[in-house]
Design goal:
Length: 356
């Protein structure tokens, strides 16, 4: 059995029942909590690097995962426990039954009231995380689970820091999925909560327009678009999109973080006001003046002549090779839990996902 295969039938008090899926760095299991007699999802992660690097990665991972575990919010997956089994770290989380936002978005433009409300819920979850000093860094469709058709849950908090360490070890690239990265992530700058806001803006754009905001003929072209290109308003691609939603998306996607919503709560309030303006059935009527003001109208984005500053160590072919090795194959098994914890565990794996 290889070092990348957990050789155990349990992780601490969690007895493995079956494998649910796997990614470049870990495996997700359905497991039984033998102390509390409940089913949970256990994500087992293999640390990269030599002994010293693994110790450093583990310390950073545990610190961030513990911070994420302290967050109690209806729009964030609940972390029950952390531990180690041999060389593997594991996270026991609530078991979610639903489908990834990625699967809903694959069907084209979504129902607009639902799209706006899902984005509102994600923004509220991010606001709670940011208040605890936790930045997700990899908001993308596969990291959002939709439960019962309309309840959004953000997954994989606490894993992004470990991803970042692995990425630097392997290729020296930035963290995140290119289509959903912020300009500052592309350029390798430090990120804060406003990076998550940009990423959520890209999700909202795609949910409303039926296509991502940024495109490129290859990886470098896509990254250049994230940094330099201003997409057309969603309403140009989907005439049903109201101007208020165009305005919210435009503000979330500002290239300069100082021009975006400055916190996720502000974005959530704008989206909540928009959602309230939709009556049952999806046809909009004018809302109260305070609701209209909350839409935070902005002028259409102007093209910004901004050079793309990639790390000199950036190697597109190496990134694509790493993806092919890590996540190029479909999951070995597919079950109704729909990839509970999202496969963002390798930033490089996400590079090619974004190009599909």
């Amino acid at each position: 059995m290889s070092a990348r295969e957990p050789a155990v039938g349990r992780f601490g008090r969690y007895r493995v029942l079956q494998e649910l899926g796997r990614g470049a760095m870990g495996v997700v299991y359905l497991a039984e909590d033998e102390a509390l007699h409940r089913q949970v999802a256990v994500k087992a992660l293999l640390l990269p690097g030599d002994a010293q690097e693994r110790a450093d990665h583990e310390a950073r991972f545990l610190q961030e995962a513990q911070s994420a575990g302290a967050i109690s919010h209806p729009n964030i997956v609940t972390i029950h426990d952390l531990g180690r089994e041999g060389e593997w770290l594991y996270i026991a989380m609530e078991l979610l039954r639903g489908e990834e936002l990625r699967d809903l978005m694959a069907q084209g433009a979504m129902d607009l009231p639902l799209a706006a409300d899902l984005a509102r819920q994600v923004a509220e979850g991010l606001a709670a995380a940011h208040a605890h000093g936790v930045v997700h860094r990899d908001i993308k469709p596969s990291n959002i689970m939709v439960v019962a058709g309309s309840h959004a849950k953000i997954m994989d908090f606490g894993v992004a820091r470990l991803q970042s360490s692995q990425v630097r070890t392997q290729v020296g690239l930035m963290l995140g999925s290119p289509r959903y990265m912020s300009p500052e992530q592309v350029e390798g700058q430090p990120v804060d909560a406003r990076s998550d806001i940009f990423s959520l803006g890209t999700l909202l754009y795609e949910m409303a327009a039926g296509t991502p905001p940024f495109h490129g003929e290859d990886l470098r072209g896509l990254l250049m678009a994230v940094v330099r290109a201003d997409p057309p308003p969603p309403s140009r691609l989907n005439p049903a999109v109201p101007p208020e939603l165009d305005a919210i998306v435009a503000k979330a996607l500002r290239k300069q973080r100082e021009e975006r919503y400055q916190n996720a709560g502000e974005l959530a309030r704008a989206l909540a006001a928009l959602v309230r303006s939709w009556p049952v059935g999806g046809r909009r009527t004018a809302g109260p003046k305070e609701d209209v003001d909350a839409f935070a109208r902005t002028e259409p984005l102007k093209a910004q002549a901004r050079p793309l500053r990639l790390s000199p160590r950036f190697d597109q072919q190496a990134a694509l090779r790493q993806w092919s090795k890590a996540d190029g194959q479909p999951a070995r098994r597919r079950v109704p839990f729909a990839w509970l914890l999202g496969w963002g565990v390798a930033a490089l794996a996400a590079l090619a996902v974004a190009l599909r």
